[in-house]
Design brief:
The structure holds two protein chains of two kinds.
Chain A (H helix, E strand, L loop, with lengths): L2 E3 L4 E5 L4 E3 L2 E3 L5 E8 L6 E7 L7 E2 L2 E6 L4 E6 L8 E9 L7 E3 L3 E6 L1
Parallel strand pairs in A: 2-12
Antiparallel strand pairs in A: 1-4, 3-9, 5-6, 5-10, 7-8, 8-9, 10-11, 10-12
Chain B lengths: L4 E3 L2 E4 L5 E6 L6 E7 L6 E7 L2 E4 L8 E4 L6 E5 L8 E8 L9 E2 L3 E5 L1
Parallel strand pairs in B: 2-11
Antiparallel strand pairs in B: 1-3, 3-8, 4-5, 4-9, 5-6, 7-8, 9-10, 9-11
Classes of the chains: A mainly beta, B mainly beta.
Chain lengths: ~120, ~120
């Protein structure tokens, strides 16, 4: 079974600063997807960014980027120029490529606080 | 495009009572998921449907939980009888059947409190 670990229950960042959220995972497979989801208090899960394991290039979406280290099974999220609206729970998730179900395995989440 | 709809948004019941949650996925999405999110944890898959067939229900506590997806569209998740540890947010998600379509679209969830 694949496990996803987020070792930071809470993180804090000042507005306009940069913060990095950590995620490690355990798998024996070589092809898979990794995701970061954002969950604000409204509970709506929003996809922030994804990474395909076969791609060496790190994914980037505007102010969000990842540092994907496949050998180390590490997948961190960097948020640049943090904004108040970035405050939320952030979940790292893994999805098997070979599983026809494509269900997500989530970590326990990191609560991000953004201070003015 | 309308998103994934869920109802009710909140539900409070006593233990041993029954409860049902409803999910209406995005139109045309063949795959539907129910996740359970206990406070302080990430969502955990309960059951996955493809059209009206079950793909994965290995983590569904079948002695008390049941789910159906009639006609491959709406889905209902039922708990009977509820236990205190069932207090959680129940999230529904859907995605198209397209191979390698990576994104799942989530609904707003139903927060269940069992007292």
């Amino acid at each position: 079974a694949q496990t996803v670990t987020q070792s930071q229950p809470e993180m804090s960042v000042q507005e306009a600063e940069t913060v990095t959220l950590s995620c490690t995972y355990d798998t024996s497979e070589s092809d898979y997807y990794l995701f970061w989801y954002k969950q604000p208090p409204s509970r709506q899960m929003i996809l922030v960014i994804r990474q395909e394991a076969y791609k060496q290039q790190n994914a980037t979406e505007n102010r969000f980027s990842v540092n994907f280290q496949k050998a180390a099974k590490s997948f961190s999220l960097k948020i640049s120029d943090s904004q108040l609206g970035d405050a939320a729970m952030y979940f790292c998730a893994y999805r098997r490529l070979s599983n026809s179900g494509y269900a997500l395995n989530f970590g326990k989440g990191t609560s991000l606080l953004v201070t003015p | 495009e309308a998103g994934v709809a869920q109802s009710p948004r909140y539900k409070i019941i006593e233990k041993r009572q029954s409860v049902a949650f409803w999910c209406n996925p995005i139109s045309g999405h063949a795959t539907l998921y129910w996740y359970q999110q206990i406070l302080g944890q990430g969502p955990k898959l309960l059951i996955q449907f493809q059209n009206n067939g079950v793909v994965d229900d290995s983590q569904l506590p079948k002695d008390r939980f049941s789910a159906e997806r009639l006609k491959g569209v709406d889905s209902t998740l039922k708990i009977q009888p509820a236990k205190l540890e069932d207090s959680a947010v129940y999230l529904c998600a859907s995605r198209p059947l397209t191979v390698n379509f990576y994104e799942q679209y989530f609904g707003p969830g139903t927060r269940l409190t069992v007292t």
